[in-house]
Structures are given as structure tokens and as C-alpha cells.
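Final paragraph of the annual report: two paired records, presented back to back.
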Amino acid sequence: MNITRLGWAGLELEESGASAVVDLLQDPGIMVDFVGEPRTALPGPSRPGAAALALVTHLHADHADADAIAAALAPDGVLLRPAAADGEYLEVVATKGAEQRLAELGVVQRIVAPWETVEVGPFRATAIPAADGFGDPQVSWVVEAGGTRILHAGDTLFHGWWWRARMRLGAIDVAFLPVNGPLVDLPHRQPPSPRPAVMGPAEAASAAFLLQAGLAIPIHYDALHRAPTYVQTEDPAGAFLREAAALGVAARVVEPGARVDTTAPRSPSVPAGY
């Protein structure tokens, strides 16, 4: 399976002529009012309109860019996603925009429950439980194709399902883990929590260790952050490499738009200067 890291938390997967996208983000839209303009690139898939499969871990706009997903999918492509949030306006406002836009664009969607597996072309995708930092429905995805098994953890908090994921689905070759550990102050979640809304470097490294991942790659950092609304932890990628090395976990930074080399040696490495 060929894997390209896109922007923020996005991935493009390619196998046997088919492609899939995960947590695609190309246009932050109204999010710029809260977190500012993107600070790093947000590249799209290499073959727009060709993806057989799109996956989203949850329906927040930075993980479910509806227009980008619609443009990425082939005419017969499908979006796999968790269930919709329910409740009053302030409970669901963070997911409502993506829900409405996906419906307007006519994106074919399938709701997938935790531990459910769906096969689309060469891709076998299993949703595993995850814990959203704002109380909205979220899953992580384990995707298998061409003899490679990856995990994409969206922007989950640390939790206790890592062991079960490995027990039920097998060893993870490459784990893509959020590392920015932000403190967040948003109008629909008040008072703001004094605890991070996403895993930080130490928690992400611990998750990779429990998964016994062959390689761990940080995602969900640097592109979006602006005080006082959304403030990431200091040096998230560098701190993650250090934490992973301390646990004996092979880890590597992959820049947006770059392909993941799954054949390179997987010894823990920390860049010079860290």
C-alpha cells in the first residue's frame, strides 16, 4: 500500500490502482475565524475524482471537509463515517455544518459502528472506538490493503482500546497519531477545559507502544493553532520523537505531501538538535 501524508490529519492510500482518502482537509472555511489561516500546506489527493473510499474519524470541519471529500470521490465512491451527533444546537453545532454540506453534495455515506469492518475494493477498513475531546462521536480507523495494516487515530484522546485493537486486528505496521495536545477555548464548549482536547506527544507515543506499531508518524499539528482559541503544545512533533524513542518505538516525521516510506529502517530516531 502506498501512503501519502496530506495536510493536518489527512492521508491518501493507494493499492492495486484504487485509492482512498482519510480525514481530508483542503479548505478550513469558517474555522479561520477561530484558528487563523493554515500555517502549513493542505495538499489534496493526487487523483481527484478517483477515490473509491473516503473515511472520516468524525464530522468536525478539520477532519471532514465536505467539498474536498466530494471532489476526491469517484462517482461510485462511498464515505464511511461514525454516527451523527445528537442533542440541542450547542451540542451538535461542531458537526452540523459537515452533515448538511455532505447531504447537499449528495455524497454517498455509510455509518459504521465501532468494531464494524467494511471492504471496498482492495481496502478493508475497521472502525475502532475513540474518545473525542468535545463529546462528539468519533472512531479511529484500521485500514488493511496489500499486506499493510495502518491505524489512523483522528484527534482522539488517550483511551483503553489500544490493546483490544491489537488483539482483534493484529499488529499495526504504521500508526498515524495526533500529537498537538491543544488547550481549546470555543464558544460551544464553556467553560473551557484546562486539559488538552487531543493526545499530546507522550500520550501518542504511549498509544504507539501499546499498539506495538512498527512505525509511528505524528499528525494533527502545526497547521492550525492560534491563541487563545486553540493553542497546541510546544514542539509537538519533536517531543513525540523523543517520547517514542524513550519507549523504543520507531517514529518518523513525514511532511505534508510526502510519501511514507514503509521500507526504511524503523529504529527510533530523533533529529539532530532535539
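The closing record of the year follows.
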Amino acid sequence: MYLDQIVDSILKGLNQQLSSMKYNTIDSFMRVIIIYSLVPILGIKGYIIMLYVGTIFNASLSINRLIVVSEVRFRLYEWVVLPVISIVISCVFTRVLFICPVVLCMLVVTSIYILLLFIFRCITKRDIRWMRQVFARSNIK
């Protein structure tokens, strides 16, 4: 839901309000059909299915439009596959080797995840320089 809202806002900022409105209208129509057909049969489960299906559908259309409009080359392996592998490894590693309070486990998982992002080169020195420049500019008043 958060990703969908952010992408919709970016599309609106890129003068793609019509596309955003079209996707939201299609999404609303699809949600009404799902509610009408699944909620009487499945109850709250049908409603939850509608939330997932509608949000994923709308976000997928919006992300696709954003990629087309911004002309960004989407690197699935580097931006999705390797980070997902990293988080799975860090969670499994922490779960198997550490018995600790929740907050400590969260810190361990996060540390291992960031380390794996560097090892898999999902985050590079160039990315670090870019982030420093962004934060340096944001501190200037």
C-alpha cells in the first residue's frame, strides 16, 4: 500500500495524473467485483484477498508506468532478487544461531542484511557517495 501511494505520487509529479486515475479506476472496479463475489462466500478472508489483489495489481500497473515514463532500466536481479536473498539469509542465520531478545535480533538481522548487500554489491561505493551528497544538500539551509 505504501509503495502504491509513493508511486502514484511520483506519477502525478511527472504529469501522469491520467494514467494514475485510470489505474485507480480499474482497481476500484476490480475491488468491487471481488467484494461482491468473495466476501459473501469467504467473509473477512475474501476482504483480505481483495486488499492484496487490488494493491498488488494497482502497484504493478503504476510501477510499470513509472519505469516507462522515467526510462529507468529495471534491474530485477540487482534490485529485487539479491536483496530478497540477503534478507532471507540474514533472518535464517539469526534465527538458527542466536537466541536473543527481539530488539537485539532485529539489530543482528539488519547488520547482516547490510553486510550482505555490500557483499552482493547491491550497495556500491558510488551509492554511498550519492547518499552523502543527498544528505549534505538536505542539511544546507
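The chain has a mean pLDDT of 90. This concludes the annual technical report; the extension proposal builds directly on these records.
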